[in-house]
DNA sequence: GAGTTTGAAACT
DNA sequence: CAGTTTCAAACTC
């Protein structure tokens, strides 16, 4: 855990004075400070990771924290993207680096990174790596995934942290724990807090240590300020500060902590070395760290999303050496929020996943999620419990946002994942699980793939498994490609080019398609956050509060089957639809409202399976929320789906943090969003709403939301769900501001 | 599991 | 822009 990041963080944090914004700002300006408190940093690292919420970034805060962020970002990429717009540069770069690191070579780098700690930048990059690296190795997947995940998750991290804390506590209890009990007791509180915001989660952590609390009291106030001022950074920044203060004297033990983490993420181990000095504060730290890992697990799960844009950068990093991490502090990189979005992640080196940020849903994602979700839930739980987190299992669950009665701890973790892209998390998890299961298989015989799909695949949910035979998975026919993710084992595709190995081809193809249709990779379904109907947007008005990007053209299915993209996406048909005999349960083109939806759905359900219904519901904003919370039935509760499924409008999310509309983005969506910003509405799509939605949901108007154009970023992708925000977990989506420029295409 | 249906994507 | 073809998912048996 020597990770430089922590150190840096700690350094930055060390000065409590930072409480005052001014002071902080100054600190940021001066690189020196970071160096000061290296020790403390570690504790925070985890925290920092968690901090995602860049969304709110206030320029000021961002500015002063930048140095810090950089570090943090390493952990949480997702959040970073948000920053990118404002702070962007640094943060972004950091993210990128992290991503690269993860993808490239986790193992070796981690160590090196620790060494680098002396250098702030290096630290940043390293810090990110180390986490990733650790986990990668093995069963530890959790840890491995965690770091990476965090990066990806970014926005959700904060919340996730809270959850994580809880989890970690539980785990620790089992293994060993001194102070843990107290911590645990507090854990409940933590959970609660965490849900809303990462910042809160952090607080909880702090709470555990009375000393910290005392010490921090003042700081807390400051922190709160910070948060307010900078929602985005808040979590990370806060943590840093707090811990630093608490930890100031400590420092050394971090290594032990790290080791412990590596071993099993359980701090207790570290405690041995630490002995008593580990005060509550340390415990808190550990917890925080643990949390991170946990979250990571989820994140690790991330699906292989393709970020084409990111890919490029990544490649560079990769090529350069695993060191992608290596300081990616370049300001330029930072500028591109896109990079953040893409977080390449390797699990077992098998597949790199990139998270795409986006707005709205990709039908594909939805579909997969819904179906799989059910299965996944079951499997996930089992796996999760067994593993406790661990890798594969964890990965899977991560996706599940729902509360699982069974494993609350786990659930929390999952929630945590939400980091932003519930979808991603799901996907990732699925991916991870898939990898784990299939290490052998890789792309091999289709049969095996199928098998996995059926079995492991179920768990994976999110992963879309395509079955392309002629398109080489380089056309929109391919769900994976369309969703911005690489094909993976579970896919039964033939002659697949949609793999990391063929990044160039994939990227080029994607560009081509985008050149033809800038919105081609945009989520097909654009959802407004349920919670926040924006007055301006008509889309909100739509029953579903979401609409299909282009509208369907159904003639025989009456928009009652999944052939219909609107239906599949859980949205009602709109004016833009050219369907005939529309009977879309989610809303007919002619205006029949969703109200009838339930009844209709029920009818349909009878016809189809409840399962299918559930899925639909999940897709559908309304239902989702409820269901998510209800783990119960097969449906889905599948938390997994939930997370992904709907992509609430990013904006809405902002408006309602609670609801969090996640932006899920279909993998591509993110790009899309960004893209739009760049090229507003050039989209071929005739849809009125769409452009508006995309923009705007944010857009336009909503001032705060903002979506800043940048904001479009979602914490990933996953996109899928969006409808309901996460139930409790609340992942909030943070829209991460995407840099003005569109993700993928920017290169255009 | 094979075959059919369907509608989007791609092509002309 | 419209019509046709291609494609793969969704669905049925």
UniProtKB/TrEMBL annotation:
Domain CRC span(s) in chain numbering: 462-587
GO cellular component: nucleus
Biased composition regions of type Low complexity, renumbered to the chain: 150-160
Gene Ontology terms, MF aspect: DNA-binding transcription factor activity
Keywords from the UniProt entry: Nucleus
Subcellular location: Nucleus
Ranges of compositional bias, category Polar residues: 82-92, 707-718
Family: Belongs to the lin-54 family.
Principal location listed in the UniProt entry: nucleus
Highest taxon of the lineage: Eukaryota
Name this polypeptide is given: Protein tesmin/TSO1-like CXC 2
SMART domains associated with the record: CXC
Positions of region (Disordered): 80-178, 319-341, 524-551, 681-728
Source organism of the structure: Cucurbita moschata
Basic and acidic residues: bias regions: 128-144
């Amino acid at each position: 855990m020597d990770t430089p990041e922590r150190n840096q963080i700690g350094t930055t944090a060390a000065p409590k004075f930072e409480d005052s914004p001014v002071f902080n700002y100054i600190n940021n300006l001066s690189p020196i400070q970071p160096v000061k408190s290296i020790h403390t940093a570690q504790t925070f690292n985890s925290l920092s990771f968690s901090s995602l919420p860049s969304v709110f970034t206030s320029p000021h805060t961002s500015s002063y924290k930048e140095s810090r962020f950089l570090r943090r970002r390493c952990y949480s990429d997702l959040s970073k993207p948000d920053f990118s717009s404002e702070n962007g540069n640094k943060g972004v770069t950091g993210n990128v680096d992290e991503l690269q690191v993860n993808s490239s070579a986790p193992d070796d780098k981690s160590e090196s990174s620790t060494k680098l700690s002396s250098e702030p930048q290096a630290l940043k990059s390293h810090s990110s790596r180390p986490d990733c690296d650790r986990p990668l190795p093995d069963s530890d997947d959790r840890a491995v995934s965690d770091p990476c995940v965090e990066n990806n998750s970014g926005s959700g991290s904060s919340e996730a942290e809270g959850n994580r804390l809880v989890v970690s506590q539980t785990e620790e209890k089992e293994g060993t724990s001194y102070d843990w009990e107290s911590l645990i007791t507090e854990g409940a509180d933590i959970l609660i807090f965490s849900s809303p915001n990462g910042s809160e989660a952090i607080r909880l952590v702090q709470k555990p240590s009375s000393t910290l609390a005392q010490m921090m009291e003042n700081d807390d106030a400051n922190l709160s300020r910070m948060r307010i001022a900078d929602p985005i950074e808040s979590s990370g920044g806060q943590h840093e500060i707090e811990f630093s203060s608490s930890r100031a004297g400590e420092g050394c033990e971090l290594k032990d902590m790290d080791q412990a983490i590596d071993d099993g993420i359980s701090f207790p181990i570290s405690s041995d070395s630490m002995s008593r000095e580990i005060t509550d504060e340390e415990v808190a730290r550990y917890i925080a760290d643990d949390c991170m890992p946990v979250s990571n697990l989820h994140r690790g799960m991330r699906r292989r999303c393709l970020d084409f844009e990111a890919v490029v950068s990544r490649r560079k990093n990769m090529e350069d050496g695993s060191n992608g991490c290596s300081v990616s502090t370049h300001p330029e990189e930072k500028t591109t929020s896109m990079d953040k979005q893409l977080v390449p992640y390797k699990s077992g080196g098998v597949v790199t996943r990139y998270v795409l940020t986006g707005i709205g849903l990709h039908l594909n994602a939805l579909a997969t999620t819904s179906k799989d979700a059910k299965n996944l839930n079951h499997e996930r739980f089992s796996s999760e419990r067994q593993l406790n987190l661990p890798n594969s299992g964890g990965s899977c669950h991560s996706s599940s946002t729902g509360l699982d009665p069974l494993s609350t701890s786990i659930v929390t973790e999952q929630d945590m994942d939400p980091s932003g892209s519930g979808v991603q998390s799901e996907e990732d998890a699925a991916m991870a699980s898939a990898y784990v299961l299939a290490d052998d298989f890789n792309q091999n015989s289709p049969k095996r793939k199928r098998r996995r799909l059926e079995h492991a695949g179920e768990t994976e949910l999110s992963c879309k498994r395509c079955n392309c035979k002629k398109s080489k998975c380089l056309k929109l026919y391919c769900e994976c490609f369309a969703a911005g993710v690489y094909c993976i084992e579970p896919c039964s595709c033939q002659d697949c080019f949609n793999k990391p190995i063929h990044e160039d081809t994939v990227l080029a193809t994607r560009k081509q398609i985008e050149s033809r249709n800038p919105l081609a990779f945009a989520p097909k379904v654009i959802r407004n956050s349920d919670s926040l109907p924006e007055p301006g947007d008509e889309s909100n008005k739509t029953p579903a509060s979401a609409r299909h990007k282009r509208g369907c053209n159904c003639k025989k299915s009456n928009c009652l089957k999944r052939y219909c993209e609107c239906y599949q996406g859980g949205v009602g048909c709109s004016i833009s639809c050219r369907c005939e005999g529309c009977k879309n349960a989610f809303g007919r083109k002619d205006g029949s409202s969703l109200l009838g939806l339930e009844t209709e759905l029920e009818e349909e359900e009878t016809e189809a399976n409840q399962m299918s219904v559930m899925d639909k519901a999940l897709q559908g904003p309304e239902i989702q929320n409820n269901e998510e919370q209800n783990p119960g039935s097969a449906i889905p509760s599948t938390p997994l789906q939930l997370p992904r499924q709907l992509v609430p409008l990013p904006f809405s999310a902002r408006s309602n943090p609670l609801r969090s509309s996640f932006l899920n983005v279909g993998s591509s969506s993110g790009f899309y969003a960004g893209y739009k910003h760049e090229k507003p509405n050039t989209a071929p799509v005739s849809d009125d709403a769409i452009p508006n939605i995309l923009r705007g949901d944010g857009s336009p108007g909503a001032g705060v939301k903002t979506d800043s154009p940048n904001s479009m970023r979602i914490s990933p992708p996953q996109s899928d769900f969006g409808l309901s925000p996460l139930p409790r977990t609340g992942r909030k989506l943070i829209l991460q501001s995407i840099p003005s420029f569109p993700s993928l295409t920017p290169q255009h």
